[in-house]
Structure formats: structure tokens, C-alpha cells
Design brief:
- With 107 residues, the protein is an all-alpha fold.
- It has a domain of 64 residues.
- Helices cover 48% and strands 0% of the residues.
- The chain is extended.
């Protein structure tokens, strides 16, 4: 699969129009239904390649957009969510600089 191509598992005759928020691979047990004893085998069946991880992030992005951005009456929630996410991201990348500016009671 090259960049911009459809997934190999996608078949337009079976699946209909392409939806970037849908996983077209073989269905497996959802994470919420996995028992603790089966967790190792379930994790072993996951595809951990960079392409698979990029596809998972892309599907999550599209699902988030379908839920919060694309509806006709979309509210202000996506703007607040992006603001909080960006604030958290910049706090984490600047934490090593910020921790030196703590106010201590005794020096």
C-alpha cells in the first residue's frame, strides 16, 4: 500500500463507498471484551508496523472529525478539545524548562 492508496482489504463491491474512518481488515474481538488471560494473545495479533500505526491514527482522526467537526450543527467542542490538547502538548515538551521555575518554601 503506497501513500494515498486504498487499503488492500478494501473491496468497493463489498464495502461500498470508501470511508477513511473504518477498518477494512479482518474483524477481531474488541479490546473491551478481551479477558485478562487472553490479553497477550490479543496483543500478539495486532499489526505493529509503522504503516498500521499511521492508519490507526488516521482512522481516529477521521472518527473524531465525523463526530465533532462535520455535523451540521457542530458546536464549539472541537475548538476546546484542540485547545486543551495543544496546551497539554506544549506543557509536556516544555516541562524540563518549567520545573526550574518552581517556588520552593526553603531554598
Amino acid at each position: 500500500m503506497a501513500f494515498g492508496d486504498y487499503p488492500a482489504e478494501y473491496n468497493p463491491k463489498v464495502h461500498g463507498p470508501y470511508d477513511p474512518a473504518r477498518f477494512y481488515g479482518k474483524a477481531d474481538v474488541p479490546f473491551g471484551q478481551v479477558k485478562l488471560g487472553e490479553l497477550g494473545a490479543w496483543l500478539g495479533r495486532r499489526n505493529k508496523s509503522p504503516n498500521a500505526l499511521a492508519g490507526a491514527v488516521s482512522r481516529a482522526w477521521w472518527r473524531w472529525q465525523h463526530k465533532y467537526v462535520f455535523p451540521k450543527r457542530a458546536g464549539i467542542a472541537p475548538f476546546f478539545q484542540l485547545t486543551v490538547a495543544s496546551m497539554t502538548f506544549f506543557y509536556l515538551i516544555n516541562y524540563t524548562k518549567l520545573k526550574h521555575h518552581r517556588n520552593y518554601k526553603y531554598h
